[in-house]
Design a protein that fits this description.
Shape: globular
Distance between the termini: 29 Å
Number of strands: 5
Strand order of the largest sheet: 1-2-3-4-5
Radius of gyration: 19 Å
Mean pLDDT: 93
Length: 205
């Protein structure tokens, strides 16, 4: 399934003219897939990106912590969970950094680089550089639930749902108002579908 999703994403990006055939071919060559977590043992950086479940993330991060060397960077792609909770699952909380890639990742430039009060400034700088090398635009933020993006977008999505429930307007009309009136690329309901309703639910929990 991972291969299928990656290849489908590359095919779609190629079809829209966002990348060349050469870039697509190169991208297909540089990734590998495994179900063996031990494969990360010699990695320079490991980015955890399982779904928004504290227990699951802490389990994965704790296992990664035991596998990798002392100089390996450990990052989490959490979108809402305070990083200090996740960093506490490791023996090196000062070396754990948040790398929150915005969805859809291939199209969105923004990466929130999240630091806790104990995060090493050198590690934050390294993650900023890494994001830039990926062609992203990193923004360093402090560690609060939802960080900046989801701290602000979650009430917006919830209020749109409540407006629909109260009969203010159909979903399509609410989306159209936000697109035409506020120049949003898509309305809150289409955005929620893109993010995934399960993830939106977890964001507001």
């Amino acid at each position: 399934r991972a291969y299928e999703r990656i290849n489908a994403g590359l095919d779609g990006t190629l079809k829209r003219g966002k990348i060349t055939e050469e870039q697509a071919a190169k991208a297909r060559e540089v990734f590998s897939i495994t179900t063996d977590l031990g494969a990360v043992a010699n990695a320079d950086i490991v980015v955890e990106a399982v779904y928004e479940d504290v227990a699951l993330k802490n389990d994965i991060l704790g296992r990664i912590d035991k596998l990798v060397g002392p100089n390996t960077y450990i990052a989490s792609n959490t979108s809402t969970i305070p990083l200090v909770i996740l960093a506490g699952a490791t023996t090196r909380p000062e070396r754990v950094v948040g790398l929150h890639f915005f969805n859809p990742v291939p199209a969105m430039k923004l990466v929130e680089v999240i630091k806790t009060p104990v995060t090493s400034e050198d590690d934050v700088a390294a993650m900023v550089e890494l994001a830039q090398r990926m062609g992203k635009s990193p923004v360093v933020v402090n560690d609060v639930p939802g960080f900046v993006g989801n701290l602000l977008i979650t009430p917006y999505l919830n209020d749109a749902i409540r407006a629909f429930e109260r009969g203010v307007a159909p979903m399509e009309s609410i989306d159209e108002v936000m697109q035409l009136g506020f120049n949003h690329p898509m309305g809150p309901f289409r955005l929620a579908d893109l993010i995934g309703l399960d993830i939106v639910h977890d964001m507001g929990a």
